[in-house]
């Protein structure tokens, strides 16, 4: 049986509802694939949106920032987290029917400043392993000073939805016989060749876990 998130007033779109889904696995797949998100909130009466990395642990999103920064002030505040993956440019015959193929997750809720030591550690581990699976075991964990300087903010996935558009061209029928080319250009984010740090100590070789045919 497919598990789904409950549709709420906040997670129900006003347009293109046919593109919206609440399937738990599909929502999680987009959150896990994307390396970044935008966190939106109100500060001093003005809208603010900050780009940052994210990690998902279960049904919770985690982001981090400086304990002296704006994320540290979000405890109990309403926030919105958005993630968008662009899969294709859709080039139509008419200007108005140009579009993009995408997968997008929007999550609303109340920010929670994470104070529990074990949850903080799990969240930070999740963020590091998001860069590369198992990376947290191949790098130094934070010192007490570094930990104190870091704010971890959690958002429970209680009001979340997924919206998608494929890469099909949707031109008006009257344009189909026109002289203009139409089609799609696929987009993707790829990892390039690994480059060791120039100050890497002598004798330290590339960990096998990172050696993916020359790619990170």
Automatic annotation (TrEMBL):
InterPro entries: Pyridox_Oxase-rel, Split_barrel_FMN-bd. It holds the Pfam family Pyridox_ox_2. PANTHER family: 5-NITROIMIDAZOLE ANTIBIOTICS RESISTANCE PROTEIN, NIMA-FAMILY-RELATED PROTEIN-RELATED, FLAVIN-NUCLEOTIDE-BINDING PROTEIN. This is Pyridoxamine 5'-phosphate oxidase family protein. The lineage of its organism: Bacteria, Bacillati, Actinomycetota, Actinomycetes, Catenulisporales.
